[in-house]
């Protein structure tokens, strides 16, 4: 039985202007598990390949798979549904499956489409394996945990407790030459060293899917994959996409020591929580090749941080950026404008605060309630959502209003934030010294995007 896994064509990402095109690790993990089960697998990354519908149709028709599985986030759900419709038209006898964040929390809505046969709910690796085995054996789908179809919702599948048991993602099925970060001319890949997050920020869909318990791969397993990426895919840059890579500082230092012990020559970056950083850990990170950290700042208003359950203080955020500069690690500051309770004044203070932090790059996202999160539930209950078109849920388009800011005002404040941060002569000169012409390309892309 042949399985095709598809990441739909998509061009509007909040990370696009900082030059990030990342491999779809979710379906790459599923592909690896299916291959280990003896199935033939093909992956199409329509986003990275910038495919149009004609070329996607041709690829599906040429492969003629029996199973077509499509991954979807909330902002990509329309493209994913269009892909499903195209798949069913091209291969009417194939089972068309959808999975990922948005379908997991909205399977009833998805299954209303006659061209979607089934939804995988939650983490998909072993659900897909059992599902494809059941299809091949013509078995009873009701016995497959973690799926929804017709009027059937089977029992939930527990998350994978031991992440070391998963094979490395099937990157040999991906167009690895198309991935990049910060527009650097380096072979780039991404990794996940753990799943789940105990912090439970109200706006985080990832924690909603993967659970509160932090599940970490062993240090050896993580360093093994880094070494594999360098040796087999010539990776010059690896980005860890964990919700919070630095949550366990001891493990971070062990990974750094493992990189240096094996003399793995690669740059890397990660997400980080401001309150986990120390001089000792940052020194080891820098020594082992870390050049970039993504830090969630969210707001300059302590009440707002408390309201979203960030469990963070303004002073700890300030300290994190000061320490990062000391160790010459680039920082990407991420903030959210327009959360419930935000005002013109608090948004203005947040914009000013980011400039004071002096990060290498900044992302000014607009508050977006994703299905599955507490933020979404509260927004629905309080009738805060003004835009219900999922394609607008990109973090770059406003979908709700605040106490004293309309949707148009929020968009204008976001534009102002980006321009005030990036269009500064001192900033441009500093980043030119650090990153060269890359920063000019970033600013040009930014002006086009917002």
Structural class: alpha/beta
CATH architecture descriptor name of the largest domain: Alpha-Beta Horseshoe
Point out poorly predicted stretches: none
As a whole number of angstroms, the C-alpha radius of gyration is 22 Å
Helix content class: 40-55%
Number of strands: 15
At a glance:
The chain is an alpha/beta fold and 450 residues long. The chain has helices spanning 25-36, 53-63, 77-90, 101-105, 107-110, 125-136, 205-210, 219-233, 249-261, 279-287, 302-307, 314-326, 344-357, 374-381, 407-422, 425-435, 438-449; strands spanning 2-7, 40-45, 67-71, 95-99, 118-120, 147-149, 152-153, 188-191, 194-195, 215-216, 237-240, 267-272, 290-298, 330-337, 361-366.
Describe this structure in words.
There is one protein chain. Helix content is about 40%, strand content about 15%. The chain has about 450 residues and is α/β, with parallel strands linked by helices. The protein folds into two domains: about 1-155, Cobalamin-binding domain (Rossmann fold), CATH 3.40.50; about 180-450, tm_1862 like domain (pyruvate-formate lyase- activating enzyme), CATH 3.80.30.20. The strands form three sheets. Strands 2-1-3-4-5-6-7 form a seven-stranded mixed β-sheet, sandwiched between helices. It has a six-stranded parallel β-sheet with strand order 8-11-12-13-14-15. Helix 1 packs across helix 6 (about 125-135) and helix 8 crosses helix 9 (about 250-260). The N and C termini lie far apart (about 45 Å).
